[in-house]
Amino acid sequence: MTTLGTPDDALGELLARLRWTATSTDESRLGRGDRVAHDGDSVTLHQVLAGSVRVDRDGRAVEIAAGDLLLLTRGGAHTVTACDDAALFTVELRLDDGASAIAAALPEMLVTCCFLVREPLIAQLLELMREERGAGRPGAAAMTTALANVVAAAAIRAWIESGCADPSSWLVTLRDPHIARAVEAMHAEPGRHWSVEGLARLARSSRSSFSERFRATVGEPPLRYLARIRMDRAKELLGRERWSVGQTASVLGYCSEVAFSRAFRRHAGDSPSAWRQRALEAGAARPQSPSPSPSPSSLSGS
Protein backbone atom coordinates (compact mmCIF):
# COMPACT_ATOMS: atom_id res chain seq x y z
CA MET A 1 0.00 0.00 0.00
CA THR A 2 1.27 3.48 -0.91
CA THR A 3 0.68 6.18 1.68
CA LEU A 4 -0.52 9.45 0.14
CA GLY A 5 0.27 12.90 1.49
CA THR A 6 3.78 12.42 2.87
CA PRO A 7 4.99 14.99 5.41
CA ASP A 8 7.27 16.67 2.88
CA ASP A 9 4.66 16.93 0.12
CA ALA A 10 4.29 20.71 0.25
CA LEU A 11 3.15 20.80 -3.37
CA GLY A 12 0.29 18.43 -2.59
CA GLU A 13 -0.85 20.58 0.32
CA LEU A 14 -0.77 23.73 -1.79
CA LEU A 15 -2.57 22.19 -4.76
CA ALA A 16 -5.28 20.98 -2.38
CA ARG A 17 -5.88 24.62 -1.44
CA LEU A 18 -6.49 25.60 -5.07
CA ARG A 19 -10.16 24.76 -5.51
CA TRP A 20 -11.93 25.63 -8.73
CA THR A 21 -15.57 25.68 -9.77
CA ALA A 22 -16.35 25.18 -13.46
CA THR A 23 -18.85 27.79 -14.65
CA SER A 24 -19.03 27.16 -18.42
CA THR A 25 -17.56 25.12 -21.25
CA ASP A 26 -17.31 25.73 -24.98
CA GLU A 27 -15.95 23.93 -28.03
CA SER A 28 -15.20 25.88 -31.20
CA ARG A 29 -13.71 25.36 -34.65
CA LEU A 30 -11.83 28.22 -36.27
CA GLY A 31 -10.61 28.81 -39.80
CA ARG A 32 -7.19 30.31 -40.42
CA GLY A 33 -7.21 33.97 -39.31
CA ASP A 34 -10.49 33.74 -37.39
CA ARG A 35 -10.51 35.50 -34.03
CA VAL A 36 -12.61 34.78 -30.98
CA ALA A 37 -13.02 37.40 -28.27
CA HIS A 38 -13.39 36.23 -24.67
CA ASP A 39 -14.67 38.73 -22.11
CA GLY A 40 -15.12 38.50 -18.37
CA ASP A 41 -13.01 37.83 -15.31
CA SER A 42 -13.16 34.04 -15.21
CA VAL A 43 -10.01 31.96 -15.03
CA THR A 44 -9.85 30.27 -18.44
CA LEU A 45 -8.46 26.90 -19.51
CA HIS A 46 -7.81 26.41 -23.24
CA GLN A 47 -7.06 23.01 -24.76
CA VAL A 48 -6.03 22.99 -28.42
CA LEU A 49 -7.66 20.00 -30.08
CA ALA A 50 -6.22 20.58 -33.56
CA GLY A 51 -4.07 23.15 -35.33
CA SER A 52 -2.57 26.09 -33.47
CA VAL A 53 -3.77 29.42 -32.09
CA ARG A 54 -2.33 32.64 -30.70
CA VAL A 55 -3.74 34.00 -27.45
CA ASP A 56 -3.39 37.74 -26.80
CA ARG A 57 -3.95 39.29 -23.38
CA ASP A 58 -2.92 42.76 -22.21
CA GLY A 59 -0.23 43.13 -24.85
CA ARG A 60 1.23 39.67 -24.29
CA ALA A 61 0.84 36.79 -26.72
CA VAL A 62 1.54 33.07 -26.64
CA GLU A 63 1.12 30.49 -29.38
CA ILE A 64 -0.15 27.04 -28.47
CA ALA A 65 -0.69 23.99 -30.65
CA ALA A 66 -2.50 20.66 -30.49
CA GLY A 67 -1.55 18.88 -27.27
CA ASP A 68 -0.77 22.10 -25.38
CA LEU A 69 -2.72 23.50 -22.46
CA LEU A 70 -3.04 27.15 -21.44
CA LEU A 71 -4.37 28.34 -18.08
CA LEU A 72 -5.15 32.07 -17.83
CA THR A 73 -4.88 32.33 -14.06
CA ARG A 74 -6.04 35.95 -13.69
CA GLY A 75 -8.97 35.81 -16.08
CA GLY A 76 -9.74 38.97 -17.99
CA ALA A 77 -10.49 39.75 -21.62
CA HIS A 78 -8.35 38.07 -24.26
CA THR A 79 -8.54 37.04 -27.90
CA VAL A 80 -7.78 33.75 -29.61
CA THR A 81 -6.59 33.89 -33.23
CA ALA A 82 -6.28 30.75 -35.37
CA CYS A 83 -2.83 30.42 -36.94
CA ASP A 84 -4.31 27.72 -39.18
CA ASP A 85 -7.50 25.67 -39.09
CA ALA A 86 -7.95 24.91 -35.41
CA ALA A 87 -10.28 23.40 -32.82
CA LEU A 88 -10.41 24.57 -29.23
CA PHE A 89 -12.00 23.33 -26.01
CA THR A 90 -12.46 26.03 -23.36
CA VAL A 91 -13.43 25.80 -19.71
CA GLU A 92 -14.16 28.87 -17.59
CA LEU A 93 -13.39 28.51 -13.91
CA ARG A 94 -13.86 30.42 -10.70
CA LEU A 95 -11.12 30.16 -8.08
CA ASP A 96 -12.71 29.68 -4.68
CA ASP A 97 -11.85 32.18 -1.96
CA GLY A 98 -8.91 31.28 0.26
CA ALA A 99 -6.12 30.68 -2.24
CA SER A 100 -4.93 34.14 -3.27
CA ALA A 101 -1.44 33.71 -1.80
CA ILE A 102 -0.93 30.59 -3.92
CA ALA A 103 -2.62 31.82 -7.09
CA ALA A 104 -0.71 35.11 -7.01
CA ALA A 105 2.54 33.20 -7.48
CA LEU A 106 1.36 31.68 -10.76
CA PRO A 107 2.01 33.43 -14.07
CA GLU A 108 -0.91 35.15 -15.78
CA MET A 109 -0.52 32.82 -18.77
CA LEU A 110 0.55 29.34 -17.66
CA VAL A 111 1.51 27.21 -20.66
CA THR A 112 2.32 23.50 -20.54
CA CYS A 113 3.64 22.43 -23.93
CA CYS A 114 3.05 18.86 -25.17
CA PHE A 115 1.16 18.36 -21.92
CA LEU A 116 -1.33 15.83 -23.24
CA VAL A 117 1.42 13.72 -24.80
CA ARG A 118 3.26 13.59 -21.48
CA GLU A 119 0.04 13.13 -19.47
CA PRO A 120 -2.22 10.83 -21.55
CA LEU A 121 -4.50 10.10 -18.61
CA ILE A 122 -5.25 13.81 -18.26
CA ALA A 123 -6.16 13.83 -21.96
CA GLN A 124 -8.82 11.24 -21.13
CA LEU A 125 -10.20 13.46 -18.36
CA LEU A 126 -10.47 16.37 -20.77
CA GLU A 127 -12.30 14.11 -23.21
CA LEU A 128 -14.71 13.17 -20.43
CA MET A 129 -15.30 16.86 -19.70
CA ARG A 130 -16.22 17.37 -23.35
CA GLU A 131 -18.66 14.46 -23.18
CA GLU A 132 -20.24 15.86 -20.01
CA ARG A 133 -20.76 19.17 -21.80
CA GLY A 134 -23.10 17.73 -24.39
CA ALA A 135 -24.70 14.83 -22.51
CA GLY A 136 -27.03 16.86 -20.30
CA ARG A 137 -26.91 14.19 -17.61
CA PRO A 138 -27.71 14.80 -13.93
CA GLY A 139 -24.60 15.66 -11.95
CA ALA A 140 -22.81 17.23 -14.92
CA ALA A 141 -21.90 20.30 -12.86
CA ALA A 142 -20.22 18.30 -10.11
CA MET A 143 -18.47 16.03 -12.60
CA THR A 144 -17.14 18.93 -14.66
CA THR A 145 -15.88 20.77 -11.58
CA ALA A 146 -14.19 17.66 -10.18
CA LEU A 147 -12.47 16.92 -13.49
CA ALA A 148 -11.42 20.55 -13.93
CA ASN A 149 -9.74 20.51 -10.52
CA VAL A 150 -7.66 17.48 -11.46
CA VAL A 151 -6.71 18.92 -14.85
CA ALA A 152 -5.72 22.32 -13.43
CA ALA A 153 -3.69 20.73 -10.63
CA ALA A 154 -1.89 18.46 -13.09
CA ALA A 155 -1.07 21.39 -15.36
CA ILE A 156 0.35 23.44 -12.49
CA ARG A 157 2.38 20.50 -11.22
CA ALA A 158 3.82 19.83 -14.68
CA TRP A 159 4.67 23.52 -15.03
CA ILE A 160 6.53 23.55 -11.70
CA GLU A 161 8.32 20.25 -12.36
CA SER A 162 9.51 21.47 -15.74
CA GLY A 163 11.41 24.31 -14.04
CA CYS A 164 9.26 27.06 -15.52
CA ALA A 165 8.63 28.79 -12.19
CA ASP A 166 10.17 32.24 -11.93
CA PRO A 167 13.29 32.00 -9.73
CA SER A 168 11.93 34.94 -7.72
CA SER A 169 8.68 33.07 -6.99
CA TRP A 170 8.27 31.19 -3.72
CA LEU A 171 6.99 28.24 -5.77
CA VAL A 172 10.62 27.28 -6.38
CA THR A 173 10.86 26.52 -2.65
CA LEU A 174 8.72 23.45 -3.28
CA ARG A 175 11.86 21.84 -4.63
CA ASP A 176 13.79 22.84 -1.48
CA PRO A 177 12.81 20.27 1.18
CA HIS A 178 13.85 22.51 4.07
CA ILE A 179 11.96 25.70 3.18
CA ALA A 180 9.12 23.62 1.74
CA ARG A 181 8.68 21.91 5.09
CA ALA A 182 8.05 25.26 6.79
CA VAL A 183 5.71 26.45 4.02
CA GLU A 184 3.71 23.22 4.16
CA ALA A 185 3.45 23.39 7.96
CA MET A 186 2.02 26.91 7.88
CA HIS A 187 -0.56 25.94 5.27
CA ALA A 188 -1.48 22.78 7.19
CA GLU A 189 -1.91 24.52 10.56
CA PRO A 190 -2.40 28.26 10.03
CA GLY A 191 -3.95 28.65 13.49
CA ARG A 192 -0.97 27.30 15.35
CA HIS A 193 1.10 29.79 17.36
CA TRP A 194 4.08 29.66 15.04
CA SER A 195 7.32 31.46 15.81
CA VAL A 196 10.29 32.08 13.56
CA GLU A 197 12.34 29.85 15.84
CA GLY A 198 9.85 27.00 15.52
CA LEU A 199 9.70 27.29 11.74
CA ALA A 200 13.49 27.41 11.57
CA ARG A 201 13.66 24.14 13.52
CA LEU A 202 11.30 22.54 11.01
CA ALA A 203 13.57 23.77 8.22
CA ARG A 204 16.59 22.43 10.11
CA SER A 205 18.22 25.81 10.02
CA SER A 206 19.28 28.58 12.38
CA ARG A 207 16.81 31.40 13.00
CA SER A 208 18.84 34.02 11.16
CA SER A 209 19.69 31.76 8.23
CA PHE A 210 16.08 30.63 7.88
CA SER A 211 14.69 34.18 8.01
CA GLU A 212 17.12 35.40 5.39
CA ARG A 213 16.57 32.43 3.09
CA PHE A 214 12.78 32.57 3.47
CA ARG A 215 12.62 36.27 2.68
CA ALA A 216 14.92 35.86 -0.32
CA THR A 217 12.78 33.13 -1.89
CA VAL A 218 9.25 33.96 -0.75
CA GLY A 219 9.63 37.72 -0.90
CA GLU A 220 8.45 38.50 2.62
CA PRO A 221 9.21 37.46 6.23
CA PRO A 222 7.79 34.14 7.49
CA LEU A 223 5.24 35.61 9.90
CA ARG A 224 3.93 38.09 7.33
CA TYR A 225 3.43 35.20 4.93
CA LEU A 226 1.66 33.32 7.73
CA ALA A 227 -0.70 36.27 8.20
CA ARG A 228 -1.65 36.11 4.52
CA ILE A 229 -2.32 32.38 4.80
CA ARG A 230 -4.58 33.04 7.77
CA MET A 231 -6.53 35.68 5.88
CA ASP A 232 -6.97 33.37 2.90
CA ARG A 233 -8.22 30.64 5.22
CA ALA A 234 -10.49 33.14 6.99
CA LYS A 235 -12.19 34.01 3.70
CA GLU A 236 -12.73 30.33 2.99
CA LEU A 237 -14.23 29.68 6.44
CA LEU A 238 -16.41 32.79 6.50
CA GLY A 239 -17.71 32.39 2.96
CA ARG A 240 -17.81 28.81 1.79
CA GLU A 241 -17.88 27.09 5.18
CA ARG A 242 -20.22 29.72 6.70
CA TRP A 243 -18.42 29.92 10.00
CA SER A 244 -19.10 32.78 12.39
CA VAL A 245 -16.52 35.52 12.94
CA GLY A 246 -15.86 34.26 16.46
CA GLN A 247 -15.32 30.66 15.35
CA THR A 248 -12.97 31.77 12.59
CA ALA A 249 -10.94 33.98 14.92
CA SER A 250 -10.55 31.14 17.41
CA VAL A 251 -9.48 28.43 14.96
CA LEU A 252 -6.94 30.75 13.32
CA GLY A 253 -5.19 31.47 16.58
CA TYR A 254 -6.31 35.02 17.33
CA CYS A 255 -6.62 35.95 21.00
CA SER A 256 -9.92 37.74 20.45
CA GLU A 257 -12.54 38.51 17.83
CA VAL A 258 -11.46 42.16 17.97
CA ALA A 259 -7.84 41.29 17.15
CA PHE A 260 -8.96 39.11 14.26
CA SER A 261 -11.33 41.77 12.92
CA ARG A 262 -8.56 44.37 13.02
CA ALA A 263 -6.18 42.09 11.09
CA PHE A 264 -8.88 41.14 8.58
CA ARG A 265 -9.76 44.77 7.89
CA ARG A 266 -6.10 45.59 7.22
CA HIS A 267 -5.95 42.74 4.72
CA ALA A 268 -9.36 42.93 3.01
CA GLY A 269 -10.34 46.57 3.56
CA ASP A 270 -13.58 45.58 5.26
CA SER A 271 -14.83 43.92 8.43
CA PRO A 272 -15.09 40.10 8.44
CA SER A 273 -18.84 40.26 9.09
CA ALA A 274 -19.45 42.54 6.09
CA TRP A 275 -17.18 40.41 3.90
CA ARG A 276 -18.98 37.24 5.05
CA GLN A 277 -22.38 38.69 4.20
CA ARG A 278 -21.29 39.65 0.68
CA ALA A 279 -19.71 36.24 0.12
CA LEU A 280 -22.88 34.44 1.20
CA GLU A 281 -25.05 36.64 -1.01
CA ALA A 282 -22.74 36.06 -3.98
CA GLY A 283 -22.78 32.31 -3.36
CA ALA A 284 -26.57 32.25 -3.29
CA ALA A 285 -26.71 34.14 -6.58
CA ARG A 286 -24.29 31.87 -8.45
CA PRO A 287 -25.67 29.30 -10.92
CA GLN A 288 -25.47 25.76 -9.64
CA SER A 289 -24.19 24.15 -12.82
CA PRO A 290 -21.83 25.03 -15.61
CA SER A 291 -23.60 25.59 -18.87
CA PRO A 292 -22.20 25.46 -22.37
CA SER A 293 -21.04 28.94 -23.26
CA PRO A 294 -22.72 30.64 -26.17
CA SER A 295 -20.23 30.72 -28.98
CA PRO A 296 -18.27 33.96 -28.73
CA SER A 297 -18.57 36.23 -31.72
CA SER A 298 -16.13 35.23 -34.42
CA LEU A 299 -14.38 38.11 -36.11
CA SER A 300 -12.77 37.97 -39.49
CA GLY A 301 -8.98 38.05 -39.20
CA SER A 302 -7.09 40.81 -40.88
Automatic annotation (TrEMBL):
Q: Where is this region: Disordered?
A: 268-302
SMART domains named among the record's database cross-references: HTH_ARAC
Keyword list, A-Z = Activator, DNA-binding, Transcription, Transcription regulation
Q: Does the keyword DNA-binding apply?
A: yes
Domain named HTH araC/xylS-type: residues: 180-278
InterPro entries tied to this protein? AraC_lig, AraC_XylS_family_regulators, Homeodomain-like_sf, HTH-like, HTH_AraC, HTH_AraC-typ_CS, RmlC-like_jellyroll
Top-level lineage group? Bacteria
Q: What is the protein name stated in its UniProt record?
A: AraC family transcriptional regulator
**Which organism was this protein described from?**
Herbiconiux sp. A18JL235
Recite the lineage of the species: Bacteria, Bacillati, Actinomycetota, Actinomycetes, Micrococcales
